[in-house]
Amino acid sequence: MRRHRLIETFLLEHLGYDWQEVHKEAERLEHAVLDAFTDRLAELLGHPEHDPHGDPIPSAEGILEAEDSFGLNQAVAGRRLRISKVRDEDAAMLDYFGDRNLVPGRLLMVRGRYGPSTAS
């Protein structure tokens, strides 16, 4: 996980990949590098805490920080929130969010909710 997320970060920050592309490329590359490469990559990147999609990067010791994020479907109308992460499994959804600059770190105001109500 550490190797994959560091490679994603490197591809985005240093090789000009789009955040929609980095997951698939990192999937291929992560199996071809050793721990020493991963350590050097972390050093080069300044030991980032999150990958481009907002997922936490484990430390070299394998420690993963606790998360307190929640899904957008749990957001309350009228509240401000900061996007902490975006799932990277669906390329079309990444395109949608990326085109609208809905990326980790972006601050939003939830104006309302659409779709089925979750109230009981």
Q: What would you report as the Rg, rounded to the nearest angstrom? A: 16 Å
N/C terminus separation: 38 Å
pLDDT below 50 for ≥5 consecutive residues: which ranges? Answer: none
The total count of strands amounts to 2
Task: Please give a structural write-up.
The chain has 120 residues and is mainly alpha-helical. The protein has a domain at 72-109. 34% of the residues lie in helices and 5% in strands. It contains 4 helices and 2 strands, in the order αααβαβ. Strands 1-2 form a two-stranded antiparallel sheet. Helix 1 (2-14) crosses helix 2 (22-29). The radius of gyration is 16 Å and the shape is globular. The mean pLDDT is 89.
How are the secondary structure elements laid out?
Elements: H1 2-14, H2 22-29, H3 35-45, E1 80-82, H4 91-99, E2 107-109
Antiparallel strand pairs: 1-2
Helix pairs in contact: 1-2, 1-3
Q: Can you tag this structure with a few keywords?
A:
two-stranded antiparallel ribbon; 120 residues; globular; mainly alpha; 34% helix
Condensed summary:
The chain is mainly α and 120 residues long. It has helices spanning 2-14, 22-29, 35-45, 91-99; strands at 80-82, 107-109.
